[in-house]
Specification:
28% of the residues lie in helices and 23% in strands. With 388 residues, the protein is α/β, with parallel strands linked by helices. Helix 4 crosses helix 7, helix 5 packs parallel to helix 6 and helix 10 runs parallel beside helix 11.
Length: 388
Amino acid sequence: MTHTVNTYNVDADRVGTGLDELVQLKPVPSLRLLRAKKAYTTRFLADRLSRSPEGFFLKEGTGVVPEAGDIVLAKIARLGQHPKLESPTSRRQALFIGDDILVPYGNRYAADQFLAKVSTGLEPCQLIAGGGVAGTVIAQHAAMGQATQIAPVGLLTDDAGVLNLNRLAPLHLDPAAAEAAREAGVARRPPVIAFLGTSMNSGKSTALSCLARGLTEAGLTVSAGKATGTGSGNDPGMYVDAGAAKVIDFTDFGVPTTFGLDYCGIQAVFFGLVAALTEPATDVVLIEIADGVYQSETNRLLSDPLFHAVVDGVVFTAADALGATAGLQVLRAAGIPVTAVSGVLTSSPIAVQEAAAAVEPPVVETVSLCESSVAMTLLPQATGNPLF
């Protein structure tokens, strides 16, 4: 298994040469960085700046080409769909034209919102997610307003090079770890339940949180995480509120969004997440996988032998009975065991009746997952399988 790990160095050879007009490093005042509004995705940067805001530069110029995870200092040029920026503590900060913000570049796949990519330079672009991601919008849902416009100033840089989220995150991607653990065959793990759905907003996060609550009420220690998606504190915060003892997500690995990440990276995030959530006291691990089963990264996971080896059961969420039926067909064809169907459709008694008549797994009302007696019926038996 191979994986490319990005390394960064200050472009000292470009400074003071004939390329000054293309790329320049300029000192950035500490006060400007402290006053800039930080995003949830840049919470580890915010922590570093609170301790030591000196020694930073901005990499500017027409020759600068950002990569996913690179942190940009940008100005708000026009307010749009996201008039607020989620702070490192998940407070919604009101944005004003002219505000400085610190956000990472990233790609986004959100069928209900934006399809966007990392910009090719420091040209004007958009705030493509309220959790704090900069990119260039390619397409958007008709119900969305125009994205908030931002004007990048430069990439934040220190003595080691451009600051990418993967240098600041507490956890690091190790694609070889999954293979090594599988070959060793000695690490044991608790049951793992994955939450998949027909699409975004099908009820995955709420179902996971309710199940976490029910299992916690039954006296179990629950770890929960989100493996794919776009960085935001909403879902991890809900897991914490539900009683999960340990909560992490892909942003803890320095990944602002998982869309566009190569598949080795997706594997590293998913299996690294399971490993990080598995502690001696953990009785069950709950993992949310964003978007729907047709989303490229999710669909690829379904056919991954390591995914099959790790996941003991799936709770599938859908908005209606037809979506539940079609989604289960996809999962059945991939050999994925489905423990229950839940989600938005359970808000309607009629939809529940339709789904129950059409699918084999039990259809469980989302709020019922909070009940310990119901939650325990969804808990797979510990398999004793290796961690991977």
